[in-house]
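Final report, Chapter 2: Outcomes

The project's central promise was a pipeline that accepts a single protein chain and returns its three-dimensional structure in a standardized token representation, suitable for archiving and comparison. That pipeline is now operational. To close this chapter, we reproduce one record exactly as it appears in the project archive, with the input sequence first and the structure output second.
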Amino acid sequence: MNSRKWVRLFLTTLAIGGVAGIITSFFVKTASYTKWLNPFDFMELLGLLVFFMGLGFVFSLVSQTGFFAYLFINQFGLGLFRTFWPTVQVLLIVFVVFDLVYFPYNAADGEGPLILYIVMAAAILIYGWIIAKIKANQTNQRAFIPALFLMVVMTAVEWVPGLRTSGTDYAWLMIVPLLACNTYQLLVLHRITKTDTEKAPKGNKKINPTNAGQSK
């Protein structure tokens, strides 16, 4: 994949993170907006939009860093575990889903209801399952587990700073852009690399990193 496509992927993902950050802030930080609506203060509202868009940009960068780390981890796992790599990924997914319930609940000293953390972890798992199925349908069925690994494990790792903050506002402001950016990168990368593969001359076939580990 040439540099022009990488730049386009970077900028598009960055924009998605910014838009997701603003939209999430409308629901999570409603009071911050209503404060400047009555009386109406355009500059303060614009400042809020720029601030939350900036947060979305930052979370987009975190997502993109995690995505490229995932590509490396996938290749490394294939080389180390070979045919056992899918099984290792499944075990890691189960472990992370458990951690998404256990550690946030303990960090809150049991103040919030346990069911809330269970629903949160289940929602991320279900969402990741749906996106992984879409990815598998667009490529091949062996892509399902690596895609689910990205959507659950890598997203959870990227989300750690949000989970460590007091309150839930920052956590919500972070998880939505992360999921949006990871989803976009996962579903679009194979289309970009497929174009390059089709244009490559015979005997010089390029490797598609999105399908790495799916033909073993």
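Archive annotation: The CA atoms of residues 9 and 188 lie 9 Å apart.
This record, like all others produced under the grant, will remain available to the consortium after the project formally closes.
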